[in-house]
Amino acid sequence: MSENYLNGSIPFQIGNLIHLQITLDLSCNFLSGEISQQLGKLQMLEKLNLSHNSLSGSIPSSFKEMISLSSIDFSYNDLEGPLPTGKAFHLAPSRAFIENKGLCGEAKGMQPCNSSFIKPHNGKKDHKIVIIFPIMAALFLILVFATIFSIFLQRSHRTRNAEKQDLEVKNGNLFAICNFDGKIAYEDIIRATEDFNCKYCIGAGGYGRVYKADLQMGQVVAVKKLDSSQGGEQADQRSFEKEIQALTEIRHRNIVKLYGFCSHARCTFLVYEYMERGSLASILGGNKEGAVELDWVKRMKVIKGVADALSYMHHDRTPPIVHRDLSSKNILLGLEFEACVSDFGTARLIKPDSSNWSTLAGTYGYIAPEFAYTMRVTEKCDVYSFGVVAFEVIMGRHPGDLLSSLATSGGQDILLMDVLDQRLPPPTLENMKGLVATATLALACLHTNPQSRPSMRHVSHELSTSKAPLLGAFHTITLGQLLDAQT
User: Fold this and answer.
1) What is the pTM of this model?
2) Which residues lie closer than 8 Å to 307 by C-beta, 6 or more apart?
3) Dist. CA 76–CA 100, nearest whole Å
């Protein structure tokens, strides 16, 4: 909502958006009045930007309850009074509060609240001076503005130097790091992984290995190290740059978060949020206990999460992004089995003024059949891969044999009950309806004609709102019936 012509006060009802997580940006508008205490209820919010408005009064003390805040900006307003307590305010740079009436507090570069600097001048005396000594007053104002300008230049210079120092490591090399406080250092990663010792390796991506790193600050992250030992450095570097481009432009609860990246003389790596349960493939292909813990309800939740991520990528951003390598290995699960799509090294921006031709990319068994002979990237390629993943979650294994049977017999003799993961107990009646709806949509996604496949927005919507009616007794429903029901 930034850079618009919004005016009036900030609605206090925004404080009711308690699940708002990433950003609230109201900067560069014409908002005025005081900031409501109700905004302090946004305890999951990470970034708050209210700069370049005409907000007055003080910053509400309730903001100390916003425990997830990591980035704030209140600059260029008419705010005054003490800053709230809290980590975000204590660590914020001084530029986050510049050009206000009289803010004070313990943030860097701020005047303490007991300083006489913030006391207002006597308006009557200033008025008399202007009347009696107009020339002296003009000279005084010129001197004041010159002093303020000088201080501003000095602070800007110090800020630039501080930011530059944040990018320096002990050996003098520079590395690029973004979106991770700017304080994580190259040596921290090397120390936490013992120079990428194999005992910290938790997986392998398309162009590198993934390591678990317990940082000194108490945070656990996943680090993907670019592997150039087998040649193909240029291709790997392109994948590295594509992943950075994709993940810095998209933010969604079902897409893995990129915290930062490092391009160093010794190695190149990406820093992600750590997903405690690892990949979907490892759980489905692991021991029975892990597969059983991923019950029918959780499996439907995983499928819905992947659909939401793809719907966002295809329809809620411009230009759309096609993943091109969606597979169970590239879907990570958190502690509560929330699904996050990862590994964007082959992702492609779909541009309307381009033919979008591409070389073959993806994982065997998940690639849309038409891509092998058209070599044209479209959203429908991801839709097909989603259909494969959905059936893999339902079956507990890759549906390779099922795909072949569907192509020959149309699924008329294949019972839905027979393709379910036999390691799980039979589904309840409510779960049966969800499974029928999911299997019906997955079959539509696997259509040989890409134009006949649904959009991911449609799939996401249907998984959210509908439960398919049972076509007779559950144990008698065939995949052929589900295919016929689509028409």
Assistant:
1) 0.62
2) 386, 456, 459, 460, 463
3) 6
